[in-house]
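Milestone M4 deliverable, item 7.
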Amino acid sequence: MKKTFIALIFIAIVLAACSNSDKKETKKSPVPEELIADANSDPIEIKDQFGLQIGETGFIVDVKNRNILEITLNSVSLRDELNGQKENYVLGNFTIKNHGEVDIPRQGVEYPVLVDGSKADALKNGEITKRQDLLGMGSKISQFDGSMNEGDTIPTGKEKTGDILMIADEKTDQYIIYFGYEYYLNKVSWEFNAQDAE
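Output delivered:
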């Protein structure tokens, strides 16, 4: 009887351990299952997402902190002038949620670049590799209302909405906003026509 009781206790301990292990393994990822290339890699490997539209959300992993970022492009505006300076400005309003384990400091989000919309296939084929292939770069100028660079950090599990400034070398009819030229482990892009911008 005593042996049976001890055996039952042992079985209960083993089952409890297995249950805890299963809970750890089945921890839900913030990334949709169809976008996960390898859930067992460290950090998680996420598929590239090209051709997203305004209002849609992409998922990306930053190289420095290995954080999963959930990025939504809410709107885009094109401007010829900002704070008295004349340029071909592209202003994207983004919501960025930090699913990682490291807080993102102010100015900690690596900015996207611009690609001409006519180069969408080249982007997907990995042919956009040099500065001359780009239409423009992200700018960390922060002296304007609504800048993503202003204010607090983005703590783990929290999100922040703000404007990210990009400067185009020239105007075009179709634009691509591209995260993944550098500093990220996978690639995400949004496409829009100039007429769709605010």
